[in-house]
Design a protein that fits this description.
heterodimer; A: 147 residues; alpha+beta; OB fold (Dihydrolipoamide Acetyltransferase, E2P); five-stranded antiparallel sheet; 3 helices; 10 strands; 19% helix; elongated; B: 142 residues; mainly alpha; 4 helices
C-alpha cells in the first residue's frame, strides 16, 4: 500500500482516506489505530457496531481469544488484539495488570490487597479487577509517572 | 512469583519470626522460669530457630501465581513444616509432661506464625494505601 500525505490549509478539515481493493484486516487495523489515536475504539454489541470513547472504557479483557471492552454498563467485543490495544492506549493511562487484562487507571477508585499475594483494583463501577504480582512493578512506575 | 521475590519474602518471614520467637521466649520464660539466667550466646537461639523454620518453607515455592485455595494450602504446608522442624529441635524439659509440652509448643508456633502472617498482611494493606494515594494524585493531575 502506498502512502501519500498532502498538506492542507488550516481552514479545511483533516481527512484520512484509504483507497483499497478490499477491506482487509490490515485496513481495519489502520482504521482502528487512527480512531484510537482520536480517542475512540470500535466495538460490537448485540450485532451492532459502536464507536466507544476510550475515556469511557473501564478495562479491556481477553477471554478465549476474544477481546472485550468493558464500560460502566455495557460490554463490547472488538476485533483488535490485546497487545495492539496495549500499545495504542499506553498514553491514555491504560496499563497491563494481568496476562489478559488492560486497566484504565483513570477508572480505578482504590487498590486493595488480595489473599494470594496479589492486589485488586476496585473500579468506580464497583467491579473488581485482579492485578497480578508480575505487573505490580509496572503499576508502581505508572503511578509515579515513570512510564 | 520470581525466585528473587520468593527469597525476599523468606527474608521478611525470617526477621518476623526472629522477633516473634524472641518475644514468645521472653513471655514464656518470665512465666515458667523467671529466675533463670541466660548467657549472651542464648541470644542466637531465636535467630537459629527462625532460620531452621524458614529453610523448609522453601519447599513450597512455585513459579506460577497461586489461586486463593492453593495459597491457603501452601500456608498450611508451611506451618506444618515449621511445627515439625521446631518440635525436632526442641527437647521437652524433664519436669513437664511430654504430650503437654508438644501441644503448648504447637499452639505457640501456630500463634507466632499467624502473627507473622498478620504483620505481612498489614504491610500489604499499607502498600495498597500508598498505591491508592498515588493513583488519586495521578487522576487529579489529568
Amino acid at each position: 500500500m502506498q502512502t501519500k500525505i498532502t498538506k492542507i490549509d488550516r481552514c479545511k478539515p483533516e481527512l484520512l482516506e484509504i483507497h483499497c481493493h478490499s477491506i482487509s484486516d490490515e485496513v481495519r487495523e489502520i482504521v482502528a489505530f487512527v480512531k484510537s489515536r482520536q480517542g475512540q475504539l470500535t466495538g460490537t454489541a448485540d450485532e451492532r457496531q459502536y464507536e466507544i470513547a476510550v475515556a469511557d472504557i473501564f478495562y479491556i479483557e481477553s477471554v478465549d481469544n476474544k477481546v472485550f471492552l468493558y464500560t460502566r454498563d455495557k460490554v463490547y467485543e472488538t476485533k483488535q488484539k490485546l497487545y495492539e490495544l496495549e500499545e495504542m492506549l499506553k498514553e491514555k493511562r491504560f496499563l497491563r495488570v494481568s496476562k489478559s487484562t488492560l486497566l484504565n487507571l483513570m477508572k480505578v477508585n482504590s487498590i486493595k490487597p488480595s489473599l494470594n499475594s496479589r492486589f485488586t483494583a476496585v473500579l468506580f463501577s464497583g467491579e473488581q479487577v485482579v492485578i497480578t504480582r508480575k505487573y505490580v512493578p509496572e503499576l508502581k512506575k505508572a503511578l509515579k509517572g515513570e512510564i | 512469583m520470581t525466585i528473587k521475590e520468593f527469597i525476599l519474602s523468606r527474608i521478611q518471614l525470617f526477621f518476623l519470626l526472629v522477633t516473634l520467637i524472641l518475644v514468645a521466649s521472653a513471655i514464656l520464660g518470665a512465666i515458667y522460669d523467671p529466675d533463670k539466667e541466660l548467657r549472651f550466646y542464648h541470644l542466637f537461639s531465636p535467630v537459629i530457630l527462625a532460620a531452621c523454620c524458614v529453610l523448609p518453607t522453601c519447599a513450597t515455592y512455585f513459579k506460577k501465581e497461586p489461586t486463593v485455595k492453593q495459597y491457603i494450602f501452601r500456608q498450611m504446608i508451611e506451618l506444618a513444616l515449621i511445627e515439625a522442624v521446631v518440635m525436632m529441635l526442641i527437647t521437652p524439659p524433664a519436669e513437664i509432661e511430654k504430650w503437654l509440652f508438644y501441644i503448648v509448643l504447637g499452639v505457640v508456633i501456630a500463634v507466632i506464625y499467624l502473627l507473622a502472617m498478620v504483620m505481612m498482611w498489614l504491610q500489604k494493606v499499607q502498600q495498597s494505601k500508598r498505591l491508592t494515594e498515588q493513583l488519586k494524585v495521578l487522576q487529579q493531575s489529568e
